[in-house]
Amino acid sequence: MRIVSGIQPTGQLHLGNYLGAIRNWVRMQDELPEGAECLFFLADMHAISMPHDPAALRAGTLELAAALVACGIDPARSILFNQAQVPQHAELQWLLNGTARMGWLSRMTQFKDKSGKNREGASVALFTYPVLQAADVLLYQATHVPVGEDQKQHLELARDIAQKFNNDFASEDAPVFTLPDPIIPPAAARIMSLRDGSAKMSKSDPSDMSRINLTDSADEVMKKVKKAKTDPEPLPAESAGLAGRPEALNLVTIYAALTDSSVDRVLAEHAGQGFGAFKPKLGERLVEVLAPITARFTQLLDDRAALGQVLADGADRARDLARPTLEQAYSALGMVR
Ligand code: TRP
Question: Taking CA atoms, which of 55, 59, 146, 262 is between 20 and 30 Å from 176?
Fold first, then answer.
């Protein structure tokens, strides 16, 4: 079993990233069976597919590395690195570009969404982004890839590429690539905006009040929770009573995730309470979970040399794991090395 996943170092980390993705990574790491391995990387090479600011990317990469460690990714147990320090990702992408089909990439919904009406002006990297993502996981013979629902299509593409490459260039008993399975976190981890229960909590929302950042102070967290949009109704006794109340559902979902409970259990315990009573409890629980992460994050960012060393060590280990598969791919394609 080998788990591989990546996250783009663009912008601030917030509660949605933590509960939706990072906490799952930490749990997988902590519950890993004997002999299994996790690789987590910062997808800085993916970040140039959209207009970007180099200084912000540099700062964002170090901040994200610090945030992941602060959240519990242990660089001694998991391999933590950034893509740009492992050139094998780019090399394998080029090799896979021979196998990926234009038609497959044209059907990727993320490309259609992000390029919008300006397809001609979109970068080539935005179009071939899913091939780099395939290289990211195939390079390490990943068996499992934890991703959000929105990345499932990219994972299916990685499987299609692996399958076609194996069919075209390898013998049946010695495939070059392993077909990875996606792991989609439970729906309960979908955290929505505090201002609009129908929009995902997002770093690109112009209103900072819409999200809890991992760097928010306790006061800011309390203020954001108290100002979160809700309705005047009290909490129902079961989840059916939250139908048509997306903001109420979101706050209960967050509370359930933070207390390792379920929406139904939280409702059973708080039935009849209004948000005047529920919000302070939620705020306190949030502060309890986030305060140690924020403190550790600040500490890690204060020692840039140590943080750089963590990434350098992770990249060393990643390159060692990547080399054999890359060589097999070159060889299967008939390249003289
Ligand atoms: N595309 C992913 C996202 O935006 C990030 C990513 C890049 C990734 N490479 C990956 C995720 C490989 C899983 C595996 O969320």
Answer: 146
Burial class (CB in 10 A: 0-12, 13-18, 19+), 273: middle
**Which of 17, 49, 147, 150 to mutate for ligand 1's pocket (most ligand atoms within 8 Å of CB)?**
147
Q: Where are the domains of the chain?
A: 2-189+304-332, 208-300
How far is the first Cα of the chain from the last one, in angstroms, to the nearest whole number?
Answer: 30
Sign of the alpha-carbon dihedral angle for 148, 215, 262, 239: negative
**CATH class for domain 208-300?**
mainly alpha
Mean model confidence pLDDT for the chain: 95
DSSP string, 184-209: PPPGGG-PBPSS-TTSB--TT-S-GG
- Going by alpha carbons, the residue nearest to atom 3 of ligand 1 is 7
- What is the Cα–Cα distance from 254 to 281, expressed in whole angstroms? 12
Q: What is the pLDDT of residue 156?
A: 98
Architecture of the domain spanning 2-189+304-332: 3-Layer(aba) Sandwich (3.40)
Closest residue to atom 6 of ligand 1, CA basis: 6
In this prediction, residue 244 has a pLDDT band, given cuts at 50, 70 and 90, of very high
pLDDT in tens, 101-121: 999 999 999 999 999 999 999
Confidence tier at 187 by pLDDT (50, 70, 90):
low
Q: Residue 123: how many CB atoms within 10 A of its CB?
A: 14
Question: What are 138-185's pLDDT values in tens digits?
Answer: 999 999 999 988 899 999 999 999 999 999 999 999 999 999 999 987
Taking the whole predicted model, whether its pTM rises above 0.85 is answered as yes
Instruction: Using alpha carbons, select from 228, 241, 156, 240 the residue that is nearest to residue 192.
Output: 228
Q: Which residues are catalytic?
A: 114, 200, 203
Return all residues near 252 (Cβ < 8 A) that are at least 6 apart: 235, 242, 263, 266, 267
